[in-house]
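=== Structural record ===
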Amino acid sequence: MKRLTMDSLHFLVEELHVDGFRFDLAGILGEKDPYSVDWNDGIDPALTVLQDIIDDPILQENNTRIISEPWTAAGTGPGIGGFPSSSNDPDFAWHEWNAHFRDWWRNFVNDDNFRLNSTEGVDGGQVLTGSSAVYGWNDRKPYHSVNFITAHDGFTLYDLFSYEEKQNGCGLLNPVCCDDPMSVWCDDSSGEEHNRSRNWGDENTKRQMMRNMFTAMFVSHGTPMILGGDEWMRTQFGNNNAYTDASDNEWNWHRWGEWQSTYAWHRARMHDFVRNLTRFRRERAYAVSPSEHDGGMPYSWKNAGNSDMNGDQWGSQRHVMIHYYRDGEAKWADKPELLVLINMERGAVDFTLPEGRTWARVIDTQSWFDMPGTIGDEEMGWFAENPSQDPYYSANITLDSPLVLEDSVYGVTGSSIVVLEEVF
């Protein structure tokens, strides 16, 4: 079986020029024979095909991306953080879908009682900076953490903020349950029950939460992964198991032109917001996308008063400031400092900005800059006050025309994220 696996990968890479592979339920490849050992026995990935894959010279030569969904249906295998790095190339290793990142951010945004250091044993600071405690033990890099909020299994990002519970019974994506509820093809019990979702009700607020999640992925250390369609607010109408034959219909197909509709300003703006986030990350990789743990621009954790965060604040607050700063090393001399202001309190928080610098706003996820969202909405918000501006482009991210701040305090609206950049 190992030989078949490796030969198949070689063929796909050398003959079909496949760039990478994502292994579904990849932990299975790290299991021992269930008929000869106890499931609870320790598992050494070095003795399995997991190590063969990551040590393979052909895959290394082609810089093939090797990505795992690190869990299994039975809860076996190495688990999150347990996948190996190469024994012969220190830069080659398994990437992993980081479910800690997904779950922490879903809780942090949707649960009013969830704090920076969660009750689930996941450190918010770790999640934001590459999860070195999870992946650094075998010298894996920040980019080996694949940071995601949604995937093909589960809710879309829009649905994550639109439904309290899955809607997998009778519906547009499962019409068989409407026509014949007793059919064997009507599986309304499928799909994850614990989604950490929330129906925010107001459409403006839903879009704000989506921008929060996109921003979280692009300012965090690691490799961001976006579910296709989320960038233009695709919905599955609450179905969180739509990867089935029963859901293969026009309501589930990707309606690619929908975001370009003459009435869907909000979809076009979301698309533009994400497009510019990719540019933001690429141009500021020295801070938000380091190739080594603690290898990028130095950063510090600050409270709203611009003092160092303490343990009590990590355990009680839902807001924090990350300051990327120059420490005197020549390589940072021409790099602007950054401030990431995160406020998931439901009310506004005033952040005191570091002195001795001029700051400009490049990102603010709050709804004001996205209103009105569609034709017929109440005439209020940034576009109502700036009617000459093209309504199909996002005002929540302004990389080419950032607003230079005059005050030393910035008020961050509740449930939003702001990024400020130093102006030389």
User: Anything to note?
Assistant: Confidence is low (pLDDT under 50) at residues 35-39. Residues 150 and 156 are 6 Å apart (CA to CA).
